[in-house]
Amino acid sequence: MPPSGVKANRRSVLDLLLGAGVLGWMGTVLFPVLRYLKPLGAQAQNGPIKLSPEEQAKLEKERAVIVRAGAARVLVLEDAEQRLRAMSAKCTHEGCTVQYVPGESVIWCACHNGRFDLDGRVLAGPPPRPLEKFACHREGDGSIVVQLGHGQEAA
Amino acid sequence: MSAPAAEEKGLYAWLDRRYGITPLIDFLKHKEVPLGGHSMIWYYLGGLTLFFFTIQLATGVLLLAYYQPGEATSYESIRFLTTKVPFGWLVRSMHCWSAHLMILSLVAHMFSTMVLKAYRPPRELTWVTGFVLFALALGFGFSGYLLPWNELAFFATAVGTDSMKAVPAIGDWLVQVMRGGTDVSINTLYRFFALHVVVLPLFTVGIVSGHLVFIQRQGMAKAIAHDNPERGMRFFPDFALRDLLLWLICLIVLASLAVFLPYGPGIPGVEWELGKKANPLAPAYPGIKPEWYFLWVYQLLKEFPPHLLGIEGPQAAIALVSVLFGIWALVPWLDRKARADRPSPAFTDLGMAALIFLGYLTLKAWDIGGGGAEVPDPHLVARASAFWGLGIAAATVVVRLLSGGARYFDLTAAAALQIVLHGFFGLPWLAAGGICVALLAATLFWRMARARNAQAGGQP
Q1: Do A66 and B286 touch (CB under 8 A)?
Q2: Alpha-helical segments (H) within B117-236
Q3: % residues pLDDT > 70 (chain B)
Q4: Does residue A32 sit in the same domain as residue A62?
């Protein structure tokens, strides 16, 4: 009969192997599941986007319009001096969609009362960062183009 | 298991021979609910929560007969259900009302357990499973909210999922997994649908089973330090019949509410008008609010400044919520007096302070005193909410003084002081809270030093 120490040793080695096997097995099951759940990255839209006639009509009527740019949303507005401005419509606080308030010349988020100036800088409320700003201009034919990807955050 | 005599006939004998159910019946016959020490009403709240949960399962399955998740169908199928399907409005109304009542009875159950210290050994895991069920119930509320795919649902989900980015290391991954993309879209609804109708019910049924097995094995907790001789009410049939009667009454109340107020009582956070279909390109509308049991988190997100101690405000707010939840889950181990079966007024005080803290934030979120303005004056709201908040604080103090035994009010005082400093003196909510926490820490230190001195002085 072997001494008990040897037996315990052999047992603990087997336990270790078994434990490592179970861990490895769990890893091989979990990894595909976790990878499966993470959505495929949305195609980043970097090029210019052109506003559709409907969007442009809405911009002219309501002074602002929110347009889709890939997975993101962009707020395009015309300020009091009739200058075009474009910035991310997603509030940097908790991701609600912001709106332009022409009367006060501010961008406002109704969810937690965050306020930004027309350059996207935080004026008041809890948002921690400015809204991302995009270049925006009117083409010769009158159509409006927003340049994505080369935007810079307001200082 | 003893085999009954062969001549016994009937279904009971047939089952008993196979499964030995007599010991189980004997167990039920001898099971008792402890009497004395405090009102019996607190023993019914858990069962009541379970009752509302079964209503949720039943009405949920009925809703599934018509609901179709999809960009072009979610909103439309719910509108069809409520406007065209016979009694469709009733089924949806019952589901919504019962959801709110379930959370209400669950919260009442949790607070009563807190105040009565029913979590003390050997029932720590009953408290922990109860806490997990509370979290699951919040998950039900949050995931179910999106399913009608209306405007309110869209922004509530945008905010709720966005707050998950505060989780260290895996935050961004978590947000994407919850949303099925970088932003809330119909892909989010598919995931929430699976969560709401399959994942959460499975987990809930499993954990409820564990919670119930614990209660059956250990019996209900007696009142703390209660020297009454062993006295009890038979569980079956005396207590079970009372339970049944209460369920019947609640079913009638639920049905009446569902019939007469099919879209809720009209209080922000307790209403379920379908409203407009979700439009990801529409801005959030003024006055948008989550359901009442999330209002305090909503308000907390408003109270935190953009940056705090080097991290972003929302992250700090979510960290605070996590810490508070963590403390709450660990109460059975933190409350050392109750562990020794001694009265622990400090933890009763913790429960009451939590109530005042949550109550004040909720009142503020409701814009009490704002005069119905689109963006009410925050000072007016803070002051009006402070009056009501102090009213809640005073009520808890009076009740505790009348019920006797309460000798500890430090935490209640701190919660009330924060209300005064913020509501009446205009200090930022967070600064007022900081002052109160500092004062509380100083008081605790002073009490501990005094106790140590008294102990040292008492010794020869």
Answers
A1: no
A2: 124-146, 151-162, 171-179, 186-194, 200-218
A3: 96
A4: no
Q: Are residues A53 and A33 in the same domain?
A: no
pLDDT tens per residue, range B74-95: 999 999 999 999 999 999 999 9
Full domain range(s) for residue A22: 1-38
pLDDT at B70 over 50: yes
Name every chain B residue with its beta carbon within 8 A of the beta carbon of A37: 177
Neighbours of B425 (CB within 10 A): 10
Say what the pLDDT of residue B225 is: 66
**Whether A100 and A136 share a structural domain:** yes
Answer yes or no: do B284 and A37 touch at CB < 8 A: no
A105-112 long-range Cβ contacts below 8 angstroms, 24+ apart: A105/A79, A105/A80, A107/A75, A107/A131, A109/B284, A110/B283, A110/B284, A110/B285, A110/B286, A110/B287, A110/B288, A111/B155, A111/B159, A111/B284, A111/B288, A112/B298, A112/B301, A112/B302
Question: Does residue A43 lie within any of the structural domains?
Answer: no
CB-based contact (8 Å) between B23 and chain A?
no
State whether A60 and A1 are in the same domain. no
Q: Which domain holds residue B442?
A: 344-453
- pLDDT, residue B369, reads 85
Residues of B in contact with A71 (CB under 8 A): 181-183, 185
Q: Would an 8 Å CB–CB cutoff place B158 in contact with chain A? A: yes
Q: Is the pLDDT of residue B454 over 60?
A: yes
Residues A59, A85 within the same domain: yes
In a domain, B433, yes or no: yes
Question: What does the pLDDT look like over B131-167, one tens digit per residue?
Answer: 999 999 999 999 999 999 999 889 999 999 998 988 8
Point out the residue among B187, B285, B306 whose CB comes nearest to the CB of A126: B306
d(CA A77, CA B246): 58
Which whole number is the average pLDDT over B330-358? 94
Contact A39 B183 (CB under 8 A): no
What is the least distance, in Å, from the CA of A94 to any CA of chain B?
A: 5
Which chain B residues are Cβ-neighbours of A96 within 8 angstroms? 155, 158-159, 284, 288
Q: Per the domain annotation, does B434 fall within a domain?
A: yes
Task: Note whether B375 contacts A: Cβ–Cβ < 8 A.
Answer: yes
Name the closest residue on chain A to residue B183, using Cα atoms.
Answer: A71
Structural element, H or E, at residue B232 = strand B232-234
So what's the pLDDT on residue B383?
95
DSSP 8-state secondary structure symbol assigned to residue B374: S
Chain B residue numbers with beta carbons less than 8 Å from the beta carbon of A87 are none
Decide if B387 is inside a domain.
yes
Q: By the CB < 8 Å criterion, does A135 face chain B?
A: no
- How confident is the model at residue A151, as a pLDDT? 47
pTM of the model: 0.92
Q: Which CATH number fits the domain that encloses residue A148?
A: 2.102.10.10
Question: Is B393 within a domain?
Answer: yes
Among A3-12, B282-291, B377-386, B443-452, where is mean pLDDT lowest? A3-12
Mean pLDDT along residues A137-152: 81
Q: Do β-strands A48-50 and A144-153 pair in parallel, antiparallel, or remain unpaired?
A: antiparallel
Domains in chain B, number: 1
Measured between CB atoms, which of B155, B176, B375 is closest to A39? B176
Domain count, chain A: 2
Residue of B282, B303, B306 lying closest to A127 (CB–CB)? B306
